[in-house]
Specification:
The structure is a single chain. The protein has 450 residues and is of the alpha/beta class. It is built from 17 helices and 10 strands. α11 packs antiparallel against α12. The termini are far apart.
Amino acid sequence: FVVAQTKEEAILLAQKENPKLTLNDLKQDEDVLDTWFSSWLWPISVFDGIRNPKNKDINYYYPTNDLVTGPEIIFFWVARMIMAGYEYIGDLPFKNVYLTGIVRDEKGRKMSKSLGNSPDPIELIEKYGADGVRVGMLLCSPAGNDLPFNENLCEQGRNFANKIWNAFRLIKGWEVADIKQPNSAKQATNWLENKMNKTITDIDISYSKYRISEALMHTYKLVWDDFCSWYLEIIKPNYGSPIDSITYNQTIKQLENILKLLHPFMPFLSEEIWHLIDNRKNDIIVANWPKKGKVDENILTDFDVVSEVVSTIRKIRKEKQISHKEKLKLHIKENKKICRNMDPIICKLGNLENIEYVEKKSTSTYSFMIGANEYFIPLSDIINVDDEIQKLQKELDYNKGFLKSIENKLNNKKFVENAPENIVTNERNKMKDTKSKIEILTKKIRSFQN
C-alpha cells in the first residue's frame, strides 16, 4: 500500500515497488475516514449507532453526562461531535464539557516527548503507588487551570496513603470489650458524625461544580486532621486496655464512609481496606455514596474551641518543658457561656487532673484567652514561680533596653533623613515587634504575681 493525495502521486510511489503497475491496478481503501471526521462520530460509533441506529446500547448510553477533554481541541473535536450528534441522532452527545488543564513542568513548559520533560508514570507508580500519584496530580490541578507538576506532591500522596493505612491498622489492633463508653468517646463520636455530614455536603457541592481538587482537599482534611489527628486520639484506649464496643462500631462505620469518599481518588487502597474490614462479596465501587445528614453547627463550633484549648495547653507544656505524662489542672473564668459537654475531651487530650470553673482569676498561673473566656493553668506545684518570674523579668529588661536603642535611632533626624528607606522601615518594624514582646512578657509576669 501507499499513501498519497492524488492517484498520479500514488502510482509513482507504487511503481517504485513494482514498475509494472498501472492506474487501473490501484484501488482506494473504502474503510477510511479523515482523522477528525471519524472522531466526530465517536459518541455514536462506539455504540454502533451509525450502522445500527436505535439499538439497545445507543438508546441507553446516548446522550451521556460529561465529556472530559483539553481546551485545545474544542473546535476540532468537541464542536464537531455536537454537530454530528444533531445530524445523525438528532440530539447532543453530552450535557457538560469538563476542560482539564495542561500538565506543565516546574519551568511552566508543556510536558512533551520532544522536550523529554515528562516523568515516566510507571516509575512514579513504582515509587509512590498508583493512588499516591493520582492524589499528587489532583493536588496540583484546580479546575480549569494548568497542572504545574511537582514530584513532591506524589510523595505527599504516598504519605496520605500511609496515614490511612496506619489508621486502619491502629483501629483493627484494638481489643474490643463490652464496657461502658467513656464520656470523651461519646462526645467525640457525636462531633465526628456532625463533621462527617458537613464534609459530605461540602464534597457534594464541589462535585456538582466540577471542582475535583476542592473535593479532594475536603476529603484530605477530614481524614488527616479530623479523623486521624483528633478523633482517633480522643477515642484511643490507654495502652493495654480495650475499647468499648459502641465506640468501636461507630468508628468502623465512619471509617467505611471515609473509604467511600476516598474511593474516587484512591481506588486501590480504599478497595483493599474495604475488604479487610469485613469479608464482603460486593466491592466498594458499587457501594452507596454516603448520605449527608443534619449538621449541628453548635457542636462543630464547640469543638473548635476545644481544639484551640488543647493546642494551647500542649504549647504551654512545650514552652515550660512539662512532660505530657504530668497531669495539670485547668481553671476557667466563664465570661461567656461555655458548653461543658466536651470537657472530658479537654481532660483526656490535655492530660488534666480536672477542670474547675472559677469566679475570679487564679493566682500563680499561666493564663490565656480564647474568645471572651479566660483559662488558667496553676503552675506553682510544677515549676518554681520565683525562678520563672526572674527569667521573664530578665527577658523583659533586655527588650526594654533594645527598644530604647531603636527609639534613639529613630529619634535621630539625620538617621531618618539619610538612611535608605528600607532600613528605616526595618527599624520601625523592629520597634513594633519589640513593643508587642514587652506587652506579652509584662502580662506573663503579672499572671504569676497576681
